[in-house]
């Protein structure tokens, strides 16, 4: 028997209006084949707000006194927050074994390191990076900051709390769990304080150029599986924004299925032993318009 | 690359980015860039060439670079640039299709494929059929697969009879890309060819007919894993294309076929774990046919590919309660999308025996998992679920959901639920508890609601005002009058809402005060309420607001005037000039029945927003007369947007029939 009987269907027109509205706000593109997903994720909102159809929901987002808060809730519902510790190990190996030694050499004088986890969701990636820094033993005594940002305030609250269950740990080796987590329940762990001390979190819409002012110049940026939500112009805006926030020679790490083909040639491709990464070229100067 | 070399590369890259494309010599400088050793510089040059004026000359120059046999990087960059040139590149590339050098003819076919312009269709068909070089013919066949025309599809079908297998393969793949299957007997013939089998199954999947499903099912029984997988892929495609009526026949055929295969569960499980999304799509159809509970967690994980989520939900809906238990056991290890679908499936499958596991799930940290447990507990119809839910009424994140779950349980245990809700309210619970209490207890709760409306916290006071109105309209109206003077905005908003819902035109005086309230929320609620309760006296104030720059105010003003039946033609005309398209649509809808509204709809067929044009077309379809037909037809001819076109087509049909 079908599960969704009795719930309002989203018409193609309602889908387009909602999709365009969300895109206009934050550049997140809900593809045409995602109507079903959008409908399912917004059904609970209709129920909570006592609305009977998606046209009413669209008008609620446009005109209600609570529209700003609701738009944030809608965006949270529409973006999945699939992440876990030590995701994409090959890239992390390349980062640990090849990128970090280079960053250590580059910044030896200042002993300062800044890493940005853009679209950090509930924090697993940012903490993973901090664990890799700690593992390397290269940055003890340095001024280190791993800064995680996300558009969803709800996931940021989880990130700050730093407590996770088995799903988040599904790719974490037992020795790492022992080293970097405290058990807070039969199956739940909490990231240890020495790691948390290096990690901070903040709210950021990557499409909002003003929001970039909050982030300082970064030595490396993880922006993995974030650009899948954007169309080409929005991706180009995000990349320009990231480029501006990176030090010359800084590294950009994308998700394993992502690349910059047809998006940007501002970054150079660096062939490392275990993976390919991008780098902002050394020669200074801003981007051409 | 040594530092010096890298800096030099960056300098060349920057120089090309900053090059003034209108300067003399820019073209040759960019062409030189196409020959650079660095891909970044070549990319910048290719992109720069697309910005040059005199595009015709640029295209010819790029075509000449394609002829430089030893310059692979430059040729590829030139091809990239040509592919971005649009229609101006078509003519020169079509001419290049008959060049003496087959290498250049192949380049031309490849680029034309990327351009995807129908003007090149005939030339590519000729190249595919007549060219003397196999590589060129294959490139042309592949290019036609990106083109989408009927001529291309028919030509590709004919090529399926070509003796050259590579060409047959390209034709099959292109037909699959065009989603244009050849007739079924043609596909049957090709299924027997080992080289073509996989592609033949791909196009077979495009035929949502039972005969095709039966052929696919034969493939499922094959000894060869690759054939089985190709058949599964076809099954996935068929499922996506099938109408729901065809789907049950298809499922029955698959079920019958899989029952005969002893190890089907094993290889379906393997396919569900595959990296190949098309294979996973087919595996979902097979899993739905098998209905083995142990497959349920694997099925849920397929939801990581969001495109497949509808099929995942559909598949899980076939599984029975045992699958629910399997899902429950895996919930805390699932990926986020898997949890999302598994959660709903679990809620749907739940029964009283799940309570202990669900209560344990409430101890897990993740909010989304707790929410699933709460919803599921509400559906267990078990008295054992009441206490654990009652404990959640003091948690702000889960209170509303828990209260709703308790309302569901109240169908079986009203007295017990009422008691826990009352207890929670006395301990300072959230508004949702008060709401639930009234839904369960009805008028018996009136004294408690009245007391709450006078004394409690702001959110509770506001809720009490609205809830009271539901169970005791007269008392609710009286309470709402008093609440209009409440110091809290939220309470005043609740009061205005009640006045709108229960009041009549005599509320006009009270609503005047609310329209002038210091808080925007109260003003917005008052704008709605004026229309709802028929306070015509306030129409003049609303008329002044239809052009308010804040769309929220203008929209409500238009809607309320329409509800009052007081939207004068002059005001309607002002409203449709608003910058916010929702205000324009509200006005269009409000004026739909008037002659002025119909005349405005004709004008709005040229509005910049597609949704306004579609709304105008609907108004004309509903209310227009034959005089509107020429304008509607003209708009249809000019319309580029698919949804607006659909509305216009419908309007033309309806107007033509009048």
The profile of the biggest β sheet of chain A is: 7 strands, mixed
Considering DSSP H and I runs of 4 or more, what fraction of the residues of chain A is helical? 40-55%
What structural class do helix, strand and pairing data of chain A support? Answer: alpha/beta
Unreliable stretches of chain B (pLDDT < 50, length at least 5) are none
Query: Main β-sheet of chain B: number of strands, strand sense, barrel status?
Result: none
Mean pLDDT of chain A: 91
Q: Nearest-angstrom radius of gyration of chain B?
A: 34 Å
Summed up, what is this model?
With 289 residues, chain A is of the alpha/beta class. Chain A has 10 helices and 10 strands.
Secondary structure elements and pairings:
The complex is a heterodimer of chains A (289) and B (658).
Chain A: H1 12-26, H2 35-49, H3 54-63, H4 67-78, H5 89-106, E1 112-118, H6 124-136, E2 143-150, H7 153-161, E3 163-164, H8 174-180, E4 181-183, E5 189-191, H9 193-196, E6 199-203, E7 218-223, H10 232-244, E8 246-254, E9 268-271, E10 276-279
Parallel strand pairs in A: 1-2, 1-7, 2-6, 7-8
Antiparallel strand pairs in A: 3-5, 4-5, 8-10, 9-10
Helix pairs in contact in A: 2-4, 3-4, 5-6
Chain B: H1 3-17, H2 26-34, H3 39-49, H4 55-66, H5 72-83, H6 90-96, H7 102-115, H8 121-130, H9 134-144, H10 150-159, H11 165-177, H12 184-191, H13 197-204, H14 210-220, H15 225-241, H16 244-259, H17 264-272, H18 277-290, H19 296-301, H20 309-316, H21 321-330, H22 336-349, H23 355-361, H24 367-378, H25 386-391, H26 396-410, H27 414-426, H28 431-441, H29 446-455, H30 458-471, H31 473-483, H32 489-502, H33 508-515, H34 520-533, H35 539-543, H36 551-564, H37 569-575, H38 581-590, H39 595-604, H40 610-623, H41 629-638, H42 642-656
